Amino acid sequence: MPSKSSANKGSVDDETDQLLQAVILADSFNKRFKPLTTDRPKCLLPICNAPLLDWTLEGLALAGVQEVFVICRSHAEQVKATIQHSRWSHPSSGLKIVPVMTAKETFSPGDAMRDIYTHGIITSDFVLVSGDLVSNIRIDEVVRAHKERRKTNKDAIMTMVVKESPKGDSAITSECLHYEPVTGYPPKRIAKIPRGVLENHPNVEIRNDLIDCSIDVCAVEVPSLFQDNFDYGDIRRDFVHGVLTSDLLMKNIYCHIVKEGYASRVQDTRSYDAISKDILSRWTFPLVPDDNYPGEHAYDHLRGNRYVPKDNSVILSRTCKIGNNTLIGPSTRIHDEAQVIVSTIGARCSIGAGTALRNAYIFDDVTIGPSCVLESCIVGAGVQIGEGSRIDRGSLIGDGVKLGPGTVLKSFERVSKQRQKSNSMTIDESLEDENGDEVDADDSELEEAEQNQSTLSQGLGPDSEAFVWPRRSGQKCDEDVYENEVESFNNRRLMRLGDDFADLIPADHGSITSEDEDDKGLGDEDEGDEDDDSFSQNASVSASAAAAGAVSAGEREFQTEVGDTLDRAFLEGHSLENASVELKTLRMASNVPLRRVREAVVARIVEKIPLVEGAAPQRVEIKKWVDRWGDLINLIGSVDGVETVSILQYHCAASTRFHLFGQILAALYQNDIVEEDDIRNWHALPEAKGEDVRNSDLLGNLQKIWIVGARMIHEFNEQESDDDDSDEDVQSSEDGDGRATAA
Amino acid sequence: MATDPQAAAGQRTVEALAAKLRRRQVVGSRESALETALVLRQVVSKARFQNINQLVEIIRSVGRKLIEAQPKEHTVGNTVRRLLHHVREEYDNASKGEATTSANEFSIANFVLQGQPRRQVAEKEAESTLVLKEDDSDDPDSFSRTLKPVVMEAIQDILDDLETVYDNIAKSARDHIHSDEIILTVGRSKTVETYLKSAAHYHKFTIIVAESGPSYGGHDMARSLSSAGISTFLVPDSSIYALMSRVSKVILGAHAILTNGGMFAITGTLLAATAARAHSTPIMVCAGQFKLTPLWNLYHEYGALDFADPSGVLGFEEGDLVDKVDVVNPYYDFVRPDLVDVYVTNEYASGIIPPPSMYRLIKESYDDEDNEL
Questions:
Q1: CATH 1.20.120.420 region(s) of chain B?
Q2: Chain B interface test: which of A276, A291, A325 (most B C-beta within 10 Å)
Q3: How many angstroms separate the CA of residue B267 from the nearest CA in chain A?
Q4: What ipTM was predicted for this assembly?
Q5: CA B242 – CA B295 distance, rounded (Å)
Q6: Angle B354-B359-B363 from CA coordinates, rounded to 5°
Q7: What is the rounded distance in angstroms from the CA atom of residue A371 to the CA atom of residue A19?
Q8: Which residue pairs, CB below 8 angstroms and at least 24 apart, start in B124-133?
Q9: Which of B62, B307, B318 to mutate to test the interface with A (most CBs of A within 10 A)?
Q10: pLDDT tens by residue, B202-240
Q11: Quick one: closest CA in A to B152, which residue?
């Protein structure tokens, strides 16, 4: 039937019209997986025997993404080659994958975003994920919601996907680590929220039960924002935080809370462990080994979540024990009496007789001798482990390592292939290793390690070809500047495979706060941060009473600067926009809270109003000034009528233009700079009555002003009842205001 | 032939459906069967072949790809097998003509091996006008030119069959359901829903719907039935046994019916069937002909039950517990043949087949050589 097929074609065409693009940040920008990541990029590490990148791509394909840019840095050639040889490059895969290589100087996701911007590859709103994501969430729904929102609000630049997590997750479950514990240690107990947020949004929901899926739907302009703000490094800590705390950018970030589906990132060895288990226990369905498996081989699902390859190439001894949640790669042989429990084993491996694997992750081509014990460890490809070895929990063994018989690796030991320096006797191909990430940072560590190699490697058996890395300690941290908090030793422990943190119990992880602007239930303007000091300072300063108390030198300088700027603006008749831009830059330069700017502006306007005799001419003068400059009060930043009135009150109380308050307020009200509700709210404030003010003159004036306000509100009330009775027109009510204030 | 752009376009639609099946974007037995038939139509309409073997191989390769992508949607393979059966039938009719209409010997051996020859005889009369020239070197397209319309017609028949399957099954509803019966069903099955609604035109009866966790399709089913004016109760799965003594008949849907008379059906069906057996309550299964699957030992495969993700049973909100237990969430139950009393399909006028005769119906519907594609 031609009608149906043509309809199909039509829908395809529609989709190409708005190609859904995705950007994969295929580099982790950290080295938590060292030494596994010396020879290959993290995104090609296998999880459940399929490279991480393939899981990510499958997740994106599931969501209907058509064009994918893979941003790779370390081992970029490898990533490129892998993509070319994978089934994704097949024309029928429906995905167009473009590997983008970035410069070596790219050290953070922010740098990568700037790189994307300079490449100019993004043509529409896109999905931003990292190359280690395992997800079955229907991102297309989020994209649709995002585009819907963009239609009404151009400033909604980003939608973050978060998932509801178990409530009260103070205990560390594997899921708990799926979101970024910004300061897992020391535990963070106080989250500070700027007051402005609470004032502008009547309904705020504070949640610490959301898992950050690290899937963002970004608007086209997001990369350019990174370009403009060259100090943005991390997407969450810097970008989201920066956008939300800046009242200059005026952009919104939304949250999409998904109720079902699975998404999480392999950020560290601990989440590697957790996600492997989640895949094996089918949380990621249909992304499971026996179904929509991104790897090459097909697996059969047996009772107890055991997965064996369909091609019957595995040889299991009759007496071996295969426990639950186990994946065994093709052509692997497991000998007599061996035990494999909650582990994944790669292709072409051999597990010796009587060897026990518990919670171990074995990559391809690994030979493990008889009578070994491996616990909670990751063993790289091609590793050979001799008879009777013992690998304790948390150990990482790099690709190609050879461990002699009787090797004992203590907990959290890291072992890699022997690595000769260029000045050493043998010239090794391991010079290639220099291409690994953060070589510079490694060098000092390595030199030190080489000196101590004799002590470090005493656990190794004879005939070992291995290089033991020094153990990390709390004192010696080799961190990059921008990572210092996240990558601190104690925090890293939370991300480490097999660590039970007996000695450090985090009470509460960093949490995500989302607020609901309206009752629609859509979380918006997510505050994805809780650990920024400048942020909390801002909040506390503006929260302190606004009385003209001790002002620091910097602020005094700012006051005069603002004064000068305004004087110039008044004198030369600048446009409101220009004046507000100038004020904003001034504010940025001297880093003062918004309230100070507002105070300065209000003060200047009040002082500039010429004093004339008689109520009516005075009112005309006031109206002239307020008409011309009043809007500036709201243009400098967020609109806050209550604050404006409050500032006006305090300024008038301390100034000679005390009697003008009523008229100015009326003028502001008529120009819609303050609303009736603002005046009512101000009037209800304790500080409006002059509480906490010791100075008796000031107090007296404040109270007089308060009474003026009371009268005004009385007028409002009368008006309302008048309105109820008869349809009096607006003009007369405004006259009413004038009368009240002139009196 | 692979370089042919038209064939490539056909391949693309196959790949697209394979991806959709693999990603579970096409689920449900009828949906999969429909999609498969549509893809087959596109492939066949663009395919070029010179003899019957090429045509059969083209169709089979499509079937292989789709089945490999999603072995658990059995209707995909069934649709392909059905088409192959039709193709061979048409071909035999056209090539042999009336000369070989000698298969009318009724022997037990013939009966078992070849199924019922009844329909073949009937159709041969009508289709003898085609003249087929296979492997004609002068005009390589002549074969496909003559056979293609017939094959397209066969595909259209399959599609029509799928469109009308519910109503055809429901034709017999009036005779099977009586007034004042209490009928139990599990979850949501479009077939059962249509069946019950059509019976409601003639009789007044009561339906108990088990909600069938964790998918809770029973909620929709109950809503739909009660909006059709049928007195409906929605009960949790746990109370099936307790209510069974009141129930006069159990009517169930199926996902796939196997050759031995057993079936795969939504989770909770086995529970209901076992409870019904304990109370000797008759069990009827309504299923379209496209669900008949020429396989019989799938229940040995643990994975055949299609285990979905555990969040429906025990979500992340259970927190600490999740780590400590292994949760299985099978999507289907395998119901043994001895638990089912009768199948109602759209195949015969009466439509009733007892499980032990299922193999015959399946033999009739498909060719033996297609059991493994």
A1: 5-165
A2: A291
A3: 17
A4: 0.82
A5: 34
A6: 135
A7: 55
A8: B124/B93, B124/B98, B125/B98, B127/B90, B127/B93, B127/B94, B128/B93, B128/B94, B128/B97, B128/B98, B130/B93, B130/B94, B131/B94, B132/B91, B132/B94, B132/B95
A9: B307
A10: 999 999 999 988 889 999 999 999 999 999 999 999 999
A11: A1
CATH tag for B5-165 (out of 1.10.15.40, 1.20.120.420, 3.40.50.720, 3.40.630.30): 1.20.120.420
Mutate to test the interface with B, among A210, A292, A311 (most CBs of B within 10 A): A292
**Which positions in chain A touch B16 (Cβ < 8 Å)?**
92, 94
Question: In CATH terms, is domain A546-742 a member of 3.40.50.980?
Answer: no
Region(s) of chain B under CATH 3.40.50.10470: 171-370
C-alpha distances in Å from residue A160, one per residue of A232, A698, A701, B215: 17, 49, 50, 28
Using an 8 Å CB-CB cutoff, list residues of chain A that contact chain B.
1, 4-5, 61-62, 91-94, 136, 164-169, 171, 173-175, 260, 262, 281-286, 290-292, 300-305, 324-325
Instruction: Judge whether A100 and A119 are in contact, CB under 8 Å.
Output: yes
CA distance B201 to chain A (A): 34
Read off the tokens for A522. Answer: 């859509």
| Contact residues, chain A, for B323 at CB < 8 Å | 173-174
More confident residue, A487 or A386: A386
CATH topology of domain B171-370: Rossmann fold (3.40.50)
Quick: pLDDT tens for B70-128.
Answer: 888 899 999 999 999 988 888 888 776 544 444 455 555 555 555 544 444 444 444 44
Q: Give residue for tokens 């051999």.
A: A350
How far apart (Å, rounded) are the C-alpha atoms in residues B294 and B291?
Answer: 10
